[in-house]
Amino acid sequence: MSDERNETSVKPSIGQYIGLWTYKAFYGLLYLSDIRVVALIGRGIGYLVWICFPSRRRIVARNFRIVVDPMLRADKLRPLVRRNMVRTSMNLACSLKTGILSDREAARAISVEGREIFRDAGLGGHTAISCVPHAGNWEILARIRPYFPEIEHFGCMYRKLSNPLLEDLVLKSRTRYGSEMFSKEAGLRAVLKLARTGGLLGVLSDQFTQEGIFVPYFGKVTGTTPLPALLHKRCKGMGILFSVYTRNRGLGKWEAVVSQKIKLPEGCESLAAITLEVNKALEKCLKEDIIDGFWMHHRWKATDNFAPKQDDDVNAVAKANMRLPFRIIICVPERFEEAVLTLPALRVLKASRFDAQLTLICPKEQQAFWQRQDIISHTATTDGETSLLQQLDADEIYKDGPFDYLFMFSENKRVFRDLQHLMPMYVSGFAENPLAKQKRAFRKRISRLNCGHPRHAAEDYLHLLSQGHFLDTSAAYPQTEQAETTSTYIAPFSTLGSADAWQQEKWAELVSRLPIKPRLLALPADRERAEAMAAALGVEALILPAEEVADHLNASSRLYAVDGLLPQLAAIGGARCTVIMASRAADRYAPLGEGHRICTNHTPCHPCERCDCDMQTPCTAGISVEDMLAE
Q1: DSSP letter (8 states) at residue 464
Q2: What's the CA angle centered on 320, arms 316 and 325, to 5 degrees?
Q3: Of 105, 203, 266, 450, which sits with the fewest C-beta atoms within 10 Å of its C-beta?
Q4: Distance, CA of 401 to CA of 297 (rounded, Å)
Q5: What's the whole-number mean pLDDT along residues 499-522?
Q6: Which 3-state string (H, E, C) describes 514-557?
Q7: DSSP alpha helices (H): ranges in 402-444?
Q8: Which of 259, 244, 162, 250 is nearest to 204 (CA)?
Q9: How confident is the model at residue 138 (pLDDT cuts 50, 70, 90)?
């Protein structure tokens, strides 16, 4: 063809020759075999695949939850999965035999429904654009060419094999009856030419493609080829869309259904809208016999770039027709102080796709906090009375369908092992995570090490999203307006240990010099000593659980605190913080946002990353009240 790329001829390798000879020997046996025998052998292979490949069973089960019912559970899924894997193996085995069937065998094995309708659509300069799903034995569509002698052009799109020797042999088999084959790698010029001149053209339209249009298929947004829609528009009124599929009619028998026209509603002109109508038509075809579909491939998969940028009109079409969300699991770090630093990244994930739904896995002490974040749809705990898998299996979480992506920020091996039961999912995380050392455990890993200026720990997570997943991180930090200070708080107790403690007499001096009388803020774990210290300072004690801190501290609040969880939570609420940081580096762990002041005594041991200080004079002793009050 004129549009094929000029490729430098490469001498075939020994392995490619071995593949060719094996293929020929195998086809010799197929040629001598009856199609019904091949079908029986294919069914037997299907049972073996079902028994021996649990990962493939999980893919089929995942697909059935999307196309049939997201609430399907193991007792109903298991027989569907088995039947589909057996049927699919039979169809695939017979597809190898289809190209070498004699005319007599083909007449017995293949029938066509709607031949006249399909034929008339390809006459008079019109083009019948066949949108073909992966169902049944789709190779018979190359064998029905003799049924349409009046049609000058009868073509089909296909993907080249990596072995050029096998490619030549298979191409000859597919074109021996007059079909024209257009490879995806050769470009679209020849295909568009056929579409403009008229004829019958087939496109396998339900293949996942990252470069396509992301619209719903069975209600779940996924990459779909816009080629049928593009061909229809290029035909300028001379193209007719058909949904063409094959269905099994018995052992070694199939029927090609070519009579189903796709009627576009009035005003359906954009590529996204037409592609959506094509998807709906293919759904209808597959629902004729859902077992006949090729569900053994990862149709609704998420790649590294799981949120490709699309035009607003495409997103509007997809949003109006979606049924199941894009489900992301985030397993946050075990330490609360580290876990809250993932919040900017979670905002980015929520904003990355209109259909994004976040499920968060955390220790029980964090659950109430995350449940109050409006970007989180569901939470489950790693140390609750109910196992993690049982929590994720609850109807409230299960009803939204299978999960799509996992961000593993925890280092808990048991939790990771449990989450692997939810595969297939792509997994992202940091290269320094010990779990990433497992073979192919993380599909995308980014190092936290930074050779330049120290990066804030929250920026590590954003770096993973921007560099590993090409996401726009502008939604990480929402803008908050600073207001005049009307309330003041002190938080003298650190969740990190005693290394960051400041002397009580200095807290007393600070309280006496503040223009607004403060309240002493503490977590329930420090209630007893917080009340004692509040009484000694003559201030009110405010004991709050972590999830309520941000409710009381806002843009008009000022907090004076030692490093730990409380200043992080106050900053999330918009409060400005003055923080003593002794054990940790401010560049890495300062409160999120702007308007904060960090007080540090740069001694040789700072930062020590220790819970308790063993020095005779702790470094915090060098921090004065004037340091805390300075703007």
Answers
A1: I
A2: 100
A3: 266
A4: 17
A5: 94
A6: CCCCCEEEECHHHHHHHHHHHHHHCCEEEECCHHHHHHHCCCCE
A7: 413-419
A8: 244
A9: confident
